[in-house]
Structures are given as C-alpha cells and as structure tokens.
Design goal:
- The protein is an alpha+beta fold.
- Helix content is about 50%, strand content about 10%.
- The protein folds into 2 domains: about 1-35 and about 110-205 and about 300-340; about 50-95 and about 220-290, no CATH class.
- It has helices at about 1-30, 30-35, 50-60, 110-120, 125-150, 165-195, 195-205, 230-240, 295-305, 310-340, and strands at about 65-70, 80-85, 90, 95-100, 245-250, 255-260, 275, 285-290.
- Helix 1 crosses helix 5 (about 125-150), helix 3 (about 50-60) packs across helix 8 (about 230-240) and helix 6 packs across helix 10.
Length: about 350
Amino acid sequence: MKLLRLAHRWTGGIVGLLLAVIGLSGALMVWEHTWLCLPRSNERLVTDSKTLGASVEAALTEEPGLKRITFASEEIGLHEAIYSNGSGAYFAQDGVLVDRWTSIWDRPELWLFELHQHLLLGQNGKYITGLLGLVLFAFSASGIGLWWQTRKTFELRLWPARMTRSGIIRQHRDLGIVAAPLLMLSGITGTLILFPVAYEILSSPWAGPEIGNSTPPKGLPLTGSKTDWQKAIANARSAFPGAVLRRITFPEPGAAITVRLKQPFEWTPNGRSLVWLDPSNGALLASKEPPSNGSAVIAEALYPIHSGKIGGTVWKLFLTFGGLGLAMLGTLGCWSFWFRNAHN
C-alpha cells in the first residue's frame, strides 16, 4: 500500500495539471450549446431537402475547397462548413452566412476542442491525452484503494476546510471517492474514442458482420457537371427513410460523395448510417447500415456518453461535476505535492 500511495502521489504531481486542463475544458464543452452566442443558433430545425440543398450551395459559393458541411441540430441551429485551407463558416439554415473564421483561434469552441482532445499539439497530442485517459482510470482505481483505509473519516467537501497540506489531502481524498466512478468512465471512454483500433481488437471476438458495402465506390467518371444538391439529398434520404441528414463530405476527383445520416435508434450525434452518391448526377451508389452487434453498439455509445450527447441535462450535470472535480483534484493535488517537496 505504501508503494501504491507513492506512485499515486508522484504521478499526480507530474500530470495533475494536464488532467485539470482536460477536466475543465471537458466541463465547458458539455455546455457548448449554451455559450456559443451566435446569431440564429437557436432557430427551429429545418430538414426539408430543398432548404438543405440551398445551404450546401451557399457553402460551396462562399469559398472554394469545401471539405465537409455538418448540418444544424436540435442543440445548435447552424450549419458548420469546413474548407480545405483550414478556414470555416457558420451558416443559418436558410443559407445566410453567420460567421467566418480563418483558424481555430478565431472561435473559442474550436480551440477548446483542440485543447481537450490534443492539448493544442496537433494530431500527435492525442497520444498524450489517450495515455492520460488510462492514467486517470488507474488514478481513480488506486485512489479508491487508498481511501478505503481512511473511510471512517469521510466528510465530503467541495473546497478544503483549510488551505494547508493536510486539509487539501483530506478534501482530495473525500472528493475523489465521490468523483471516482465518473472519472473512471470518462478516462476509459476518452481513450477508446481516440484509439478506436484498440477497441476493435479488444472486442473482435464479439464483432458481427457488416451490412451493406464497407468502402465507398471509386473510379467514377469526371463529367464536370454541377451536382443538383436538392436531388442528391433526397436520394440519400431515400436509403434510410426517417433518418436525419447530418453531414456531407466532399470527394476528391473520381470519388463518391459521402453522406452521413442519423436514424432514430442511433446515439452518435452525427449518425453512422452512410450513403455514397455520384457527384455528377446525385444518384445513389451504395449505402451502409450501422453495425448492430453487441460490440458495435458499445462502440457507438462511447462518444455520446463521454460528451453528454445522451441522458439530457441530468447526465450533463454529472459530467460537469466530474470535469470540475478533476480540475480541482488535479490542481490542488499538484500544488500540495510540490508545496510539500519545497519545504522538505
């Protein structure tokens, strides 16, 4: 137990502030829809093919090199367009431009997401945050073991009774045991989201067959004709009646348009029902149902659980408590560790 306590203390002293940053940024992102503060972001959702097609045309006209457009949702009533040069734009659902940005630093929700997922280190940062997710899981598990020895002195405090090392440690211990289940869940789901291949390997014994084509068609003829987006969207929706259009990804020359839809039973915000369209005429080429076996259902639930996209306000409040708790545990724990060492 002494070795466990030593490992818990030293590891926390080293990575505590990084975990605090991830926790605080995550808590803020849960409520992104409430603080986005953009005009017309609260408008009622419009889903007819004609209006959506006009919005796609507006995004294409705004700037060349459109990579993808994510359509408005119940939470945020704006379309988000991302361009190949790294810029982007928000459009109202009637195609009117609401805001433009040239880099992630122009929009707080964009750099906050990069901070949470990559620590502002680009794609390489995900290896650090993925490892920190495992560390958080191990921290929480070891903290439960360490707390058990002093369980009779438990007294929940959101803030230390005294800003002394002993007061901080006691508050850290008792707040940590309450937050531990949420932190373990957040840690492991975050890691598996960043490294889906790891989950696929672990769950491969329970994986079932895929339904539909698994890869988009390639080698399409280059006709140079303009896509009729109203027709294309209607064709995509015909593959999954009742589904909501969520995203269109624009292809390289000779490749198909990829459309993502969300069916009523899906949890993932942008859905996992895929359709591929011919860019020359908007014709339906292929479709793919989301996997329905046990392991795939769990995989689909990882992101919605981690980000609060299911469970309503109650689950968002739980995640907020976990994120703010992690920020406090990491910050005060790190401070008390180095403060103690400075006086030894």
